Amino acid sequence: MILWNLDHKRLCDLFEEEGLELLKLFYRNGLKRESVNISIFSESCSRGNMKFVKFLVENGTNIDGNDGTPLKLAIENDRLDIVEHLIRNGANAHSSSMML
After folding, report:
1. How would you class 14 by CB atoms within 10 Å of its CB: exposed for 0-12, middle for 13-18, buried for 19 or more?
2. Dihedral, CA atoms, 80, 77, 28, 24, nearest 10 degrees?
3. Count of beta carbons in the 10 Å neighbourhood of residue 78
4. Which of 30, 44, 85, 96 is the most exposed place for a label (fewest CB within 10 A)?
5. Which of 76, 87, 21 has its CA nearest to residue 43?
6. For the chain, which domains are there?
7. What is the CB neighbour count within 10 angstroms for residue 52?
8. What does residue 30 show for φ and ψ, rounded to 5 degrees?
9. Burial (CB count <10 Å: 0-12, 13-18, 19+), residue 74
10. Per-residue pLDDT tens for 11-53?
11. In whole angstroms, what is the distance from residue 6 CA to residue 57 CA?
12. What's the CA gap between 98 and 91, in Å, rounded?
């Protein structure tokens, strides 16, 4: 599928433009591929897209993907609602990526 060749930021742009329903459609049709899924999840945490973050967490995305990168990105971008959501759902605040 050509989708996997898109840069994850461009893919996130597409999902944000078209909405959560497009993300759900792609997810039902194979977006569960771990590397793409984690990239979309991390980018959504960075951008503060709570709808996407909630959907991906509810559908089994590895909340600590890339050694805590999603949480770190949410913190770095002042996405406090995302930080709270990730921690409430079990994100590891003590991963090595969180160390200064």
Report:
1. middle
2. 70
3. 9
4. 96
5. 76
6. 7-98 (1.25.40.20)
7. 22
8. 120, 0
9. buried
10. 788 888 888 888 888 778 776 666 567 788 899 999 999 999 9
11. 22
12. 11
Cα(55)–Cα(13) distance, integer angstroms: 17
Tokens of 26: 């792609």
57-89 per-position pLDDT tens digit: 998 888 998 777 899 999 999 999 999 999 999
First vs last C-alpha separation in the chain = 39
Residue type present at position 52? F
- Contacts of residue 13, defined as CB under 8 A and 6 or more positions apart, other chains included, come to none
Q: Token pair of 42, please? A: 């991390």
Write out the two tokens for 41: 């999840």
Nearest to 87 by CA among 78, 75, 97: 75
